[in-house]
Design goal:
The protein has one domain: Arc Repressor Mutant, subunit A (Orthogonal Bundle), CATH 1.10.10. It contains three helices and four strands, in the order E-E-E-E-H-H-H. It is of the alpha+beta class. Strands 1-2-4-3 form a four-stranded mixed β-sheet, covered by helices on one side. The relative contact order is 0.15. It is 43% helix and 20% strand. The structure holds zinc ion (ZN). Zinc ion binds next to helix 1 and helix 3. Zinc ion (ZN) binds next to helix 1 and helix 3.
């Protein structure tokens, strides 16, 4: 099974989160931890599922990092992560995106 090419880490406004592809239990596809500074994706997922899960958890990490998790509440945050995770996977799959290092 092909594995998604996920970054080793992602920098969110100066905070670096490690990206781990690991076995997760209980049917969990992914998780993000603000305290642990990581995003984890289940290794048994196929390439597309790993990428979508990565973006889903990235949205959670971004919202948590900005304190929006408490502003939005769990249901709205999850809905946003579901939608944006899917859209970002689509956008990456069908577009040439700018390379890193654009910001000064
Ligand atoms: Zn979620």
């Amino acid at each position: 099974m092909d594995k998604a090419v996920l970054p080793e880490s992602v920098n969110i406004l100066g905070t670096v989160f490690q990206v781990r592809v690991v076995p997760l239990s209980d049917g969990l596809h992914g998780e993000s931890s603000q305290a642990g500074r990581y995003i984890a994706v289940d290794e048994s997922l196929d390439e597309c599922q790993q990428l979508e899960t990565f973006y889903h958890e990235l949205v959670h990490a971004i919202l948590d990092h900005g304190g929006y998790d408490s502003v939005l509440g769990e249901d709205k945050q999850e809905a946003l992560a579901q939608y944006l995770g899917m859209v970002l996977t689509y956008v990456q799959s069908f577009n040439e995106l700018p390379k890193k290092g654009v910001m000064p």
